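Sequence, please.
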C-alpha cells in the first residue's frame, strides 16, 4: 500500500539560477559599498538579509513539504486577505463603534487581531482546496 513517488527532475538551469542569485547578491553588496558609499555595516546587513531570503526561497521551491506549504498558505492569507479585511472594517465604521462601546485598548486589540485571524483561516481554506500545492509546483 505504499506508493513509490517518482522523482521529478529539475530543469538544467535550476542549479545555475541559485548560484547566480547568490553571486549577484554579493556583487550588489560590493557595488553598494564601493560605488554608492553605503556604510559597510549596512551593506553587510543587506547582503545577510538577502541570503536569508534566498535560503527561504530555496527551501520553499526545492525542499518543500506539506507543512511548509500549509504555513505559506496561512501566511499568505494573513498578509493580503487579513489586511483587506482590516481596511474594510476600518472604513465601515466598525472600529469606531468598537471604540465607543468597549474602549480604546480592547478596540485596538480586536481590530488588529480578528481580521488577521480571519485571513489565516481563509488562507488555510484556500490551501486545503488546492491540497497545499503551491502554484507552478511540479
Amino acid at each position: 500500500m505504499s506508493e513509490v513517488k517518482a522523482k521529478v527532475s529539475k530543469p538544467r538551469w535550476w542549479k545555475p539560477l541559485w548560484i547566480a542569485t547568490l553571486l549577484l547578491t554579493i556583487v550588489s553588496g560590493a557595488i553598494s559599498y564601493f560605488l554608492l558609499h553605503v556604510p559597510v555595516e549596512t551593506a553587510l546587513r543587506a547582503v545577510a538579509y538577502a541570503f536569508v531570503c534566498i535560503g527561504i526561497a530555496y527551501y520553499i521551491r526545492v525542499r518543500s513539504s506539506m507543512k511548509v506549504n500549509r504555513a505559506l498558505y496561512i501566511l499568505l492569507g494573513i498578509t493580503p486577505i487579513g489586511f483587506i479585511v482590516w481596511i474594510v472594517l476600518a472604513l465601515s465604521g466598525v472600529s469606531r463603534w468598537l471604540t465607543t462601546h468597549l474602549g480604546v485598548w480592547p478596540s485596538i486589540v480586536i481590530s488588529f487581531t480578528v481580521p488577521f485571524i480571519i485571513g489565516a483561516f481563509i488562507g488555510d481554506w484556500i490551501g486545503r482546496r488546492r491540497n497545499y500545492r503551491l502554484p507552478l509546483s511540479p
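The two ends are 23 Å apart (CA to CA).
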